Amino acid sequence: MGPWMYDSWIHGWFGMWPWPILIIVLIIVLLLFLGRGCSGRVSQNSRGYDAGTGEPPETALDIVKKRYAKGEISKEEFQQIKKDLLS
C-alpha cells in the first residue's frame, strides 16, 4: 500500500463528516420552523389569541354588543341576534 491510500482515506473522512451534522442541523431548524407555525405568517397562536395584542379574537356577540351600544341596531334586533347566536 502506498501513501496515496492513506491520503485518500483522510480526505474521504474529512470530506464526509460535516454532512451528518449539517443534515441534523437542517432537521432541527425545519422542526423549529414548523413548530412555531411559521409565526411570521400566522396572526393567531394555537389558543386563538391575537399574536400582536395577546387578547382573544372578537366574537360575533361582541360585535353585536358594540353595534347595540353605538345605537346601530334596536333592542329588539339585538335580542333577536343574540338569541340566534346563542342557540
Distance between the termini: 86 Å
For the CA atoms, what is the radius of gyration?
30 Å
How many distinct folded domains? Answer: 2
Largest sheet: none
Number of helices: 4
Q: What is the strand content?
A: under 5%
Described by its quaternary structure, the protein is single chain
- Low-confidence runs of at least 5 consecutive residues: none
Secondary structure category: mainly alpha
Number of strand elements? 0
> Secondary-structure element sequence?
HHHH
Overall, the morphology is rod-shaped
Helix content: 55-70%
In round numbers, the mean pLDDT is 77
3D structure, described in words:
The protein is mainly α and 87 residues long. It has two domains: 1-56; 58-87, no CATH class. 63% of the residues lie in helices and 0% in strands. It contains four helices and no strands. It has helices spanning 3-16, 18-35, 60-70, 75-86. Helix 3 (60-70) runs antiparallel to helix 4 (75-86). The radius of gyration is 30 Å and the shape is rod-shaped. The chain starts with a helix and ends with a helix. The mean pLDDT is 77.
